[in-house]
Amino acid sequence: MNIHAPQDSSVALEEKGLWVSLHGAEAKYFNYYWLRDNCPTSFNTTTRERTFDIFHLETAPKATAAEVQGEDHVTRMPVATLDVYATGNPRFDPADLPRTAWFGDHYPDVTRFTLDELKSDKDKLGTWLEAMIVEGISVITDMPDTDDALTELANLAGAVRPTFFGNYFDVHTHINPTNTAYTAAALELHTDVPAEESAPGIQYLHMRANSVDGGLNLFGDGVAAANDFREIDPEGFRLLAETEIPFYCEHDTYDMRSYQRVIELDHHGEVSGLTISQHMLDLIDLPQEVLDDYYPAFCRFGKLLQDDKYIMKFTLKATECIVFDNHRIVHGRAAYSATSGERYLRGTYTDRAELRSTYRALISEGRFKA
Ligand SMILES: [Fe+2]
Q1: What is the mean pLDDT of residues 297-307?
Q2: Structural domains present in the chain
């Protein structure tokens, strides 16, 4: 491998890597494997994927003077790339935005767009996706009363993500309910489908009809409550962030189980979300002595989460679709009178990672420019 350092730089070759001075500044170290694997010629500019297979090198890549042993390959590495990767810091991610915690008075300020605005205006689409990353909730208005409207909206952020309930779910009262949501009873604050190994990330609830008495919608920011809990009760916070507890969802043809932490932290150590559901919490199978501390902490947090400080209460109107981060935002419903009118919600999910991907692609050019 010929290392073509810029004119103002010098190179010092070592056993496993080389030192190169970029822009005449202090020399930075680069590993030979990294240099060879990430040579711009290793990538196909059409697919934007790496086509070079480092597993098939017969000898370890090593620059001696200006050549790699056993391979005649010339690497021309842009200095801008070396600048970015010299320090070992994570690659910049435009979707890694700090979350803004919100509280029970947030409803008038919830991000709102019409479906047509999101379909026709890339700037508004970007603003919506950003709000979903930062605040984790939005309301889309003027939704047509059709099944397709929900799919069209979801597809603006990603592909529909099926669960074991299927691609979509319809929430109205059932004669033989398999889930509390399908009754007219109150539904406690929860995140959806915690029994799945990786619960769906973004939830969409399209209100198709709502003329019943009661059934107030309840939404709260798990990040706001967990951040406060961290301050008030650090030991309880630690237990909920480190201990995995079992969730289940079981009926005639399925028996889904998983272990989850109630408080989820991101790679910065910040609270990124919650997994909580009273109606899908399995019998906790931790040693009973551990429960002496865990259960009181769990209840302290559960009580805090229900405080009016955190919970928006409103009526989602027909034609509106609420979109929220299912790993962060808890949702629930007050009881309603099933005979007082019609109430029909159609729901679906996409994933968090795909929403971030859509956002990045919309606002940045990525590593490879066409
Ligand atoms: Fe739910």
Answers
A1: 95
A2: 2-85 (3.30.2020), 107-362 (3.60.130.10)
